[in-house]
Amino acid sequence: MPQRSIGILQPASCEGGASDDRHAANVQDKKGSFAEFHRISAQGVWPYFERIGARIVGMWLVTDDEREAPSPDYDTVLLLTRYESHEHWKATRNPSALGGEGPTWERCRDALEKRRALTLDTWLRFLDPGVQTTGGPYFGP
Question: Is the N or the C terminus of the chain less surrounded, counting Cβ atoms within 10 Å?
Answer without folding.
Answer: C
